[in-house]
Amino acid sequence: MTPTVPTVPATALPSTAGLPAPPEAPPTSPTPLPEPSPDVPSPVPDPMQPSPFPLRVSLAPQGSRPARIDGAWWPHSRDLTAELPALVALLDVYWDRITRVTVNPAHWPVVPRKVQVAGHVVKVGWFAQEQDPHQLMLLSYRTGRWDLLVIPPGTPSDTAARLMAAAVDPRCSSAGTALMDEAAARHPDDRAAEAGETVWESEGGRGLPPGAGPMTSRATGQ
């Protein structure tokens, strides 16, 4: 036997005929955001975020390391805190985790004691005499040491390209400053890339970073 479904008479349903239409809601406008207070400092860049600038680096192929340097780095500025995280993050992949970086303070106005890289902290030190002013030294607890030629940020792109290629040439036997001098001798116009650095040093830029203490021994990974 098929069950029957009860039906509701149409007259039982409430009718809206003759009733006024409901009032329309007044249009709403987005709540304006408060203006930033001039006393509130700008947010500090997150060191865990990637750099907005492309990383410019050339590395010697594994198994064919040059005698004196392992590649070249062309930073966008002389700000180690801003420039090092992207470089170290890349080298962590190629050369194992980098634990320490050292520079010569001649071309770096401020040398931080450490920089934050994705996943770990890298210690930063300096040598005023022992280290070539145009080189960056990187150390790993487990793997060893690497040296990169540092190309001045204001170097013309064609000059930087020649230096990057020379730095990874297996026949290269020159250190950073010598390599820069050799390139300038072959291309005299390249010396203009160092003009700004020379003026900066003559005006007092060269010297020890503020608050830094001298290092008397060669850096190690410890």
From TrEMBL:
Skewed-composition ranges (Pro residues): 20-53
Compositional bias per record (Basic and acidic residues), positions renumbered to this chain: 185-194
UniProt cross-references to Pfam families, sorted A to Z: DUF5994 (PF19457)
Domain of life from the UniProt record: Bacteria
Composition-biased stretches (Low complexity): 1-19
Segments for region (Disordered): 1-62, 185-222
Protein name: Uncharacterized protein
